[in-house]
Amino acid sequence: MTKKILAVLETIGGIASGLLFCTIMWQVLARVVFHVAATWTVEVGKALFVIMIFTGSPILIYRDGHMAIKTILEKLKGKKQSILRLVVDFFVVLALIILSYGCYNRTINTWNDIIPTVEWLTSGKIYLVMLIGTLAMLYMEIVKIKEHILGLKGKEEETK
Fold first, then answer.
1. Taking the C-alpha atoms of 11, 17, 23 and 27 in order, what is their torsion angle to the nearest 10 degrees?
2. Rounded CA gap, 61 and 157, in Å?
3. Nearest 5°: phi and psi at 122?
4. Closest CA relative to residue 137, chosen from 53, 61, 48, 52
5. In sequence order, what are the residues at sequence separation of 6 or more whose Cβ sits closer than 8 angstroms to the Cβ of residue 7?
6. pTM of the predicted model, to two decimals?
7. H helices within 2-122, ranges in order?
8. pLDDT per residue rounded down to tens, the chain (160 residues)
C-alpha cells in the first residue's frame, strides 16, 4: 500500500510541477509579450506550489530525504543511536498531529472563503490539500518508525 501511495503522490506532484511551469510561463508571456495582467496566475501558482510541497514531503519523509543535521546521531552507535532516532521520530509525529489538527480546523473554517482572482478556488480547498499531505506525512513517518523498530528486533535476534 505504501508503494501505491508514493506512486500517486509522485504523479500528483509531477503534474502540479508541470502545471506550475505552464502557469509561470503564461504569466511571463501575458505580461511581457501581450501586455496583459494575468492576476489569476499568482493564486494558481501558490496553490500548485502548496500541492507540490505537500505531496513531495511524504515521499521525502519515507525516503529519509529531508535536510537534517545528523552530527549527534552519527556520533552515537547501536542502541543509543536507535533510541535517539525514535525520540526524534516521536516529536515529528507529535508535530504532524498538531499540524493535521490545525489544517483540519482551517479547512472547515475557510471552506467557503473565495480567492478573488480565482473564484472556483477557495482557501478551504488549499487547506484540504495541506491536510491530506500532512496525513500522508504522518502515515509515512509511522511506516518508517515501524520499519526501524522491526529492524531493531531483527538485529537483536541475530545477536542472540
1. 180
2. 27
3. -110, 160
4. 61
5. none
6. 0.88
7. 2-28, 40-63, 71-75, 78-109
8. 899 999 999 999 999 999 999 999 999 999 999 999 889 999 999 999 999 999 999 999 999 888 887 888 888 888 888 888 899 999 999 999 999 999 999 999 999 999 999 989 999 999 999 999 999 999 999 999 998 888 776 666 555 5
